[in-house]
Design brief:
This protein has 378 residues and is an alpha+beta fold. The protein has two domains: 2-32, no CATH class; 45-377, Deoxyribonuclease I, Chain A (4-Layer Sandwich), CATH 3.60.10.10. It is 27% helix and 27% strand. The protein contains seven helices and 20 strands. The N and C termini lie far apart (59 Å).
Length: 378
């Protein structure tokens, strides 16, 4: 008892006069708690672009030249192969963020029909419950189009349009249109999404270049007034996703859209009225491109962002630095016979031979964050 009584004043003294260590721990706990609260005030938005390589349904559409992708067609596109393809696409979507969640906004290229998207969403409960879709209906001879999957809780659709690409003054080109969607995020930011699959290089790059240039000109014309709104202070942002059938250094991206690479020394001071190409990181074990042809890699699949998304002031929707990447898992690729040190995408078909892979493109992914509305604003 004496020992206990004797120690009581000493304990009381410690409570009255905290030690320097205790003060440091209290301050650290406060700072960590404050940082945690600040982190919880922002949510993430993940965006992906994926050329899925000929996602056709197995039913004949008399208005399209889809005969090759029927059970009796040259590709012998059976219901079993169709379901396998859907499961592969769903696996990529659910794995893109390394098992966390599917991306919130997903631009899909080479999709034949709304049925394909409905069947895809039905494969997983989470997809069917959380996502809606948009798809164009263009003049492409085979019937492939572009589509957008969007998580309704992250992107409130306000409207959308299909932008046809028929160039005036040149020979007619039956090709897929652009998709333009406008939505609002929980933060109140407006976000314009463009999904594109620019005309192919079939017939030679020089012969087909005017068609890609025209498509880029239409995109630029749509984007300029929106960029001006951002310059004037509106919380209005732009993302362009898709397969450009060309590299970021070629005319559609660099000269016509005026998109500069980001990050780079020239782009660190972002001009408020410009678009920027979000360069995928190129660390060890990451693909040197999204597409490989005869051993040569290129970034045909791109994500462009308005300068408003690159500002350092974290008030609205902002790009997560260095988050842009080409999505790769070993099961998505295969070792190429051509000169390439990195596994190329394992495609669905080699000519008309069923190869059983996922796609001839790797997806590209980028992350953003935005402030959640405060409790008082809800």
């Amino acid at each position: 008892m004496n020992d206990t009584t004797a120690s009581a004043p000493h304990t009381s003294h410690l409570l009255r006069r905290p030690s320097a260590l205790r003060l440091s721990l209290l301050l650290l706990a406060f700072l960590l708690g404050d940082a945690k609260a600040a982190a919880q005030e922002r949510a993430e938005l993940w965006v992906m672009s994926y050329n899925v390589e000929n996602l056709f349904d197995p039913e004949d559409d008399p208005s399209k030249a889809d005969e090759d992708f029927l059970p009796e067609g040259s590709y012998h596109w059976t219901k079993t192969r169709y379901r396998t393809k859907l499961m592969q696409v769903a696996t990529v979507l659910s794995s893109a963020r390394e098992g966390l969640y599917s991306p919130d906004l997903i631009g899909l290229v080479e999709v034949e029909s709304a049925r394909c998207l409905e069947d895809l969403l039905r494969l997983q409960t989470r997809l069917s419950e959380e996502y809606s879709y948009l798809i164009t209906e263009g003049a492409d001879r085979r019937g492939i189009d572009v589509a957008l999957l969007y998580r309704r809780s992250a992107f409130q659709l306000l409207g959308w349009e299909q932008i046809d690409l028929q160039p005036p003054g040149v020979e007619p080109l039956a090709t897929r249109p652009l998709l333009h969607a406008l939505g609002r995020l929980p933060s109140g930011d407006s976000l314009h999404i463009f999904v594109c699959h620019l005309p192919s290089r079939r017939g030679g790059a020089r012969h087909s270049q005017p068609y890609r240039d025209h498509a880029a000109s239409l995109l630029a014309a749509r984007c300029q007034p929106l960029l001006q709104q951002a310059v004037e202070g509106a919380r209005c942002h732009i993302l362009i996703l898709g397969d450009f059938n060309g590299t970021p250094d070629e005319a559609p991206t660099r000269r016509i859209l005026g998109a500069q690479p980001y990050p780079s020394d020239a782009a660190m001071q972002a001009s408020p009225a410009k678009l920027y190409y979000l360069q995928p990181r190129q660390g060890k074990g990451e693909p040197p491109g999204s597409y490989c042809y005869q051993g040569i890699w290129s970034y045909l699949d791109q994500i462009l962002a308005s300068a408003s998304l690159l500002e350092q002031e974290p008030k609205g929707l902002r790009y997560l630095p260095h988050s842009s990447r080409v999505v790769f898992f070993p099961w998505l690729g295969e070792q190429a016979k051509e000169r390439s040190d990195f596994p190329r995408p394992r495609r669905s078909y080699l000519g008309t031979y069923y190869h059983g892979g996922y796609s001839d493109h790797y997806p590209v992914l980028a992350g953003f964050s935005y402030p959640l509305p405060s409790e008082s604003a809800k």
